[in-house]
Design brief:
The chain is an alpha+beta fold. It has one domain. Helix content is 24%, strand content 34%. It has 1 helix and 11 strands; from the N terminus they run H-E-E-E-E-E-E-E-E-E-E-E. The protein has a 5-stranded antiparallel β-sheet with strand order 1-2-3-4-8, with helices on one face. The protein has a 3-stranded antiparallel β-sheet with strand order 5-6-7, with no helix packed on it. A 3-stranded antiparallel β-sheet has the order 9-10-11, with helices on one face. The N and C termini lie far apart (114 Å).
Length: 221
Amino acid sequence: MKKVLSSRGFTLLEMIIAMVIFFTVLMIAYVITLTISTGFELQNFIENVQADTEIVMFKINEEIQETNPYYVWVGTYNDPLFGGASKMLLAFPVPRDQNNNFTMKSNYYPDYKKIIMYFPYDNMGVEELRRYEIYNFPSYYLQTGFSFSATVSVSSITLRGIAPILRNSGEVVVSNLGEWTVDSSSGSPIRINLSIGSSSIPGGGTYQFLLSTYMGARNKN
């Protein structure tokens, strides 16, 4: 008996169904891959933001520990750069020279060479926390009963008895600043709340990491 082989091929409908199934499977695989990739990117992003916040707080704490509790100055100022919103200023002297070497007097007491100041800055719509170093400040800053004061303008900050400091000259320690508050109501230690955020994160949306800690000056001289 002679066997007859069919020469029938795929119909147009069968080809369309096969293509639909193929592209559906391909799309599902793409979505799964994209979700996993975005998840890893988001996790890395969050870890980086948290690490950046912790590094800044560690640096501030390290600096404050080198000053005297009576020399930690905190002020709230209506900042014209932010439309008159209240912004907090933190300043304190440290016994460090321009090469960041620890400096002492002949009696082994700290020799305060500069004032470190932290204050927010608006850089084309991006809020930053900037750090300033001020040298050659008047000796009465370290006298009992000294009253700290500052005048804040759009372009500069003027401390009592010190030439105006250009605001755009400070070192950027935080970009995309979320919250910056300093509570000195209980004396020493002071409490600092710092958060870093971003308006663009993997997968869309926003993220903000808040770190709150107490910091105390340790140098009594």
